[in-house]
Amino acid sequence: MAADDRFTEDFRDSRDEELIGAISEAITGPVADWATDFSHLEPEWSADPYPIQDDLRQRCPLAHTERFGGAWLPTRYEDVAAIAYDTGRFSSRSIILSNFRPPRELAPIGGSPPISSDPPFHHDARKLLLPAFTKAVITKQEPATRAFCHSLIDAFGGQDVVDAARDYAQHIPMRVIADMLGFPPEDGPQFRVFVEDLLEGINLPPDERIERVSRLFDYLVAQVHDHIDNPRDDLTTYLLNAELYGQKLAPEHVVGTMALLLIAGIDTTWSAIGASLWHLAKTPDDRRRLVAEPALLPTAIEEFLRAYAPVTMARLVQEDMHWRGVDMKADDWILLSFPAANRDPAQFDRAGEVVIDREVNRHAAFGLGIHRCVGSHLARMELRVALEAWLARIPEFTLDDPAAVTWAAGQIRGPRALPLRIR
Amino acid sequence: MKIQIGGDRCQGHGRCYDRAPDLFGADDEGYGKVLGDGVVPPGKERDARLAAANCPERAIDLLEEG
Description:
The structure holds two protein chains of two kinds. Chain A is α+β, with helices and mostly antiparallel strands. Chain A has a single domain (about 10-420), classed as CATH 1.10.630.10. Helices cover about 50% and strands about 10% of the residues of chain A. Chain A has helices at about 10-20, 35, 45, 50-60, 75-85, 120-130, 135-140, 140-155, 165-170, 170-180, 190-200, 205-230, 235-240, 250-280, 285-290, 295-305, 340, 375-395, and strands spanning about 20-25, 60-65, 70-75, 90, 100, 160-165, 245, 245-250, 310-315, 320-325, 325-330, 335, 400, 405, 415, 420. In chain A, the strands form six sheets. In chain A, strands 2-3-12-9-4 form a five-stranded mixed β-sheet. In chain A, strands 6-16-13 form a three-stranded antiparallel β-sheet. Chain B has a single domain, classed as Alpha-Beta Plaits. Helix content of chain B is about 25%, strand content about 20%.
């Protein structure tokens, strides 16, 4: 077999500039009015975004901000759904809202296909991944995931208080996705840095942001070279061998998809596990009921996903247009809040309450339309196994100090510090 | 009662085969498919309705007889 020469120095040098495009000035500081100056990066939002979203849905369902070079925030389910379905007028070429707008030429592939891809390319790039993420394939990972969860609980030893976000939730998706991509399991701590670099360093100066993104890129290229030298049965080797339109994938496609799987696979599920444990720690009735009725857990998990949906996406407006009463401009951002959609009273009864036996729950935590989270079956398995193991081993737990709980700032929201008293 | 998955609306969320595995299955890419001829056996009507009501894409059609 000929050597794989796609991943040369030239490829590495060419990448950064093309992802940056137009730069807007970073505007930070307290929000004056959420309807006209919103920012999902401010502490008030990360601490508790739901009252803000509920207020906006009532008085200004398409909120706007001049920050990030101009962005819109829909809070009604019907608007979020309409944007998710309208891939023609709302591009996915960047799905992390920042002060950089990637150039239009980056579409339809985007920096991390298929999440950053638009039709028609999107369909073909997504089709490559789907067979690896079906429920049947994911089920094979369940025993190893369960054993890993128990090993994390074993490691709590005799402690009375543990940090369920830091010492439990974060490790589970890190281990699972490292196994799937064929990365060394001990690299987990680095993954956390990559996640923070990409998803939380939004307002950093351009040079610093490029440098941080490069750290992830360098790591992934090193993994690529290791897999070229030592092919094995994992997603990295699969992507290196995969073909589209009769050719091997472009190197940017391979590395972009690896970045997507690594980043999107970690703090999303970490957040969902943490938010579920946070809810149960402060809601003893729900906790006791799930301990007594484990069969209810899958239904309760859907409700945790609805009420504490961790993921907000972004879109870019394609052309100037009048849309549902507002004037959108080409390259305006859309902050596509699935969490806000999931709490719309027009779509859900008792939308603001957590009802763990909710039977009809058409939530949008994994998105709607062609970009439905490709890892949703994996996330559900991890979330269920993580909660089953926890509730079986630690049926009694409470928040040790509610004020010590901290939440990630940015588009992925979940607890980052979650001290729980477990005995 | 008969069930069908409408055209290209299914995006593979899998809520139907999670909730009603007797009525729905998955293809090799995770998209939902109706098992058998789609006729809902007696006693399974509630499962069919719940599967339809939980589909995020509203991709499941229930065809009531008569």
